[in-house]
Inverse folding.
């Protein structure tokens, strides 16, 4: 079955470290997205990509970086410049030009700074 | 710009009670509307959707009607169960140009159903 796989489910980071969250989809979707979720704040868009080798900043891109070298993959790196990285991170994908269908979400990665 | 406003929670109901979660939106075009559900520790799942005015989306006993005149898409269920306890997100999808549809989310409403 097609879907989105996020790994790991839980991730612990020490202060000053960079960590990379994986997101892979086999839905043949063009667009992929990264969201951050904090309690009581809903979803905030970090980065999105509509085509391979191209991506745009969302509302809270500072301290994060992404790459889109393959259609199926959209990894997110949380850098040491992100001062408060503890959160739940969600990856999503969609077909470009297919607004009727909304997004398909992964099951999330919970990142904790220790 | 686009925005979605949904009622703040948390909402606590007894089993078999009637549920309404209000959602209103502002959009520049003709959006599609969605309700997503998030169970504890998981990602978001599409619950139902509507793509034009007066459409009714329905799934698992939940319903919502696209009301263009009141710019609303309220979620309802006639008899909730403990298993419905989750966070519910209202969202709209609008063409932001060049066929690019992005979702705008509300802040979510946490529902707790007690036996």
């Amino acid at each position: 079955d097609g879907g989105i796989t996020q790994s790991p489910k839980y991730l612990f980071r020490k202060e000053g470290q960079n960590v990379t969250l994986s997101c892979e989809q086999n839905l043949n979707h063009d667009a992929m997205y990264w969201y951050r979720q904090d309690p009581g704040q809903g979803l905030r868009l970090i980065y999105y990509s509509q085509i391979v080798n191209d991506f745009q900043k969302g509302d809270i891109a500072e301290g994060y970086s992404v790459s889109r070298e393959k259609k199926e993959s959209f990894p997110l790196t949380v850098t040491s410049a992100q001062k408060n990285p503890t959160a739940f991170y969600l990856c999503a994908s969609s077909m470009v030009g297919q607004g009727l269908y909304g997004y398909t979400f992964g099951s999330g990665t919970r990142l904790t700074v220790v | 710009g686009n925005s979605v406003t949904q009622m703040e929670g948390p909402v606590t109901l007894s089993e078999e009670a009637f549920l309404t979660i209000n959602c209103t939106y502002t959009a520049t075009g003709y959006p599609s509307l969605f309700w997503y559900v998030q169970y504890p520790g998981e990602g978001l799942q599409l619950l139902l959707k509507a793509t034009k005015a007066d459409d009714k989306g329905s799934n698992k006993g939940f319903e919502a009607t696209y009301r263009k005149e009141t710019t609303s898409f309220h979620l309802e269920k006639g008899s909730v169960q403990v298993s419905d306890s989750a966070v519910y997100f209202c969202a709209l999808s609008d063409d932001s140009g060049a066929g690019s549809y992005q979702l705008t989310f509300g802040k979510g409403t946490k529902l707790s159903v007690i036996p």
Notes: DSSP finds no helices and twelve strands in chain B. The two ends of chain B are 41 Å apart (CA to CA). The CA atoms of residues 84 and 113 of chain B lie 7 Å apart. Chain B has a mean pLDDT of 92.
